[in-house]
Specification:
Radius of gyration: 18 Å
Helix content: 10-25%
Number of strands: 9
Number of helices: 1
Low-confidence stretches: 6-20
Length: 141
């Protein structure tokens, strides 16, 4: 009986600290950008990022849009889950008129409210300077 109580306490401790740690990771990621999650964002570099819908749900297609100044180009982009490690999802943006678009989807998880982050790596065509922008959004169900 003693070992059962110890095991139960041990499991409860890790579940509670794991949830708390996820919240700390979310807060840390949100500090990387001056934009509110799921909202249209304009960075100091002139880069604009927004979603096709402000309410994203897992396993449902959505689009990410970019409007870039002419002197910037996309080197690569990926989605990472911040709340819980789920690997990353490479993003391929295609140009439609003056706007770039990536059609994508994220998987479902045990957490009903997951923070995801677009990591957008750009470079300045004129100077060769590398620029990274982070765009955060929540996926809920």
């Amino acid at each position: 009986m003693h070992i059962y109580k110890f095991t139960l306490f041990f499991m409860l401790f890790f579940v509670l600290t794991g949830c708390d740690n996820a919240n700390q990771k979310d807060q840390k990621a949100l500090l990387k950008t001056n934009c509110d999650p799921n909202q249209h964002c304009i960075y100091k570099t002139g880069v604009k990022v927004w979603l096709s819908d402000k309410n994203i749900t897992p396993e449902t297609p959505f689009s990410i849009y970019l409007d870039l100044p002419a002197h910037l180009k996309i080197d690569n982009a990926k989605l990472e889950s911040i709340t819980m490690y789920m690997g990353f999802i490479p993003q391929k943006f295609t140009k439609e008129a003056t706007i770039y678009k990536s059609d994508t989807m994220v998987g479902i998880c045990s957490e009903q409210n997951m923070l995801w982050q677009l990591v957008l790596n750009l470079s300045n065509i004129q100077t060769g300077e590398s620029i990274t922008h982070f765009y955060n959004f929540y996926v809920t169900y």
